[in-house]
Amino acid sequence: MLTLKYVILGFIQGMTEFLPVSSCAHLVILQKILSITQNQISLSIVLHLGTVLALVFFFFKQIIKTLKDRELMLLILLATLITGIIGILGKDFFTGFFNGSWWVCIFLLINGIILIFSKKFLLGKRDILDIKDAVLFGFFQGISIIPGISRSGITIFILLLRGVKWQTGFEFSFLSAIPAILGATFLEARKISFSLQIESKNFLLGFLVSFLSGILALWILKRILQKTKFHYFGYYCIIIAIISLLFMR
């Protein structure tokens, strides 16, 4: 049963890290349901590393191309810098919401409304980003630390709102996610528990499942954006938030 819990958490992490439905919200809710109270930080780090590996695998060609594009690299660095500043300065405030499952559900509702609103902006025409795009992207990526607010959802939305093509927004959002997720993960790694060694098999299983499900989630999201159905995730978020609110009363 314990192994199954880690398989479930790994799958949910991989799917929700990239689908615009907030991985933090799902993990907070699931850890409460599955009664996992120990090694939460260690587990979160391991699962996030699995999803980072999925990003590198899925976007390998784009990563190589980006490393040769000086302007795009500078935009990613600018966005990452802004995200880092917001994350460091506002970390205590934002992570305070993790202590209240009620808050998580409320922000998941807000996330859903934002995604539904994105329906009006799915046909952008710009495929070249500018400094303003990077600044706004970095800001919203920074506040996505709030559990219930999806990093991929709010960052793709803001680029769509700016008239950027979904293909460009999709790639920039996830290329920028690599340094952002790695940075947050290494900051949390300072708190990692030595008991990680005790549950190494379960953690490795969670890592592998999050990696594989992360690749699947990226493929699904790309297909959904192609079919201009991105806003459908908004209805899902609202339904899950309402059910969770009722369940945790």
How would you sum up this structure in a few lines?
The protein has 249 residues and is an all-alpha fold.
| Spans of at least 5 consecutive residues with low confidence | none
Helical proportion, percent range: over 70%
Record field, number of beta strands: 0
Q: How many domain modules?
A: 1
Number of helices: 11
N-to-C span: 26 Å
Order of helices and strands: HHHHHHHHHHH
Gyration radius (Cα, Å) is: 17 Å
Give a short account of the largest sheet: none
Question: Would you write up a description of this structure?
Answer:
With 249 residues, this protein is mainly alpha-helical. It has one domain (2-247). Helix content is 76%, strand content 0%. The longest helix has 27 residues, at 200-226. The two termini are 26 Å apart.
Structure keywords:
single chain, 249 residues, mainly alpha, 11 helices, 0% strand, globular
Task: Present the secondary structure layout.
Blueprint: H1 2-18, H2 23-33, H3 40-58, H4 60-67, H5 70-95, H6 101-117, H7 131-143, H8 151-161, H9 166-189, H10 200-226, H11 232-247
Helix pairs in contact: 1-2, 1-3, 1-10, 3-9, 3-10, 5-7, 5-9, 6-11, 7-8, 8-9
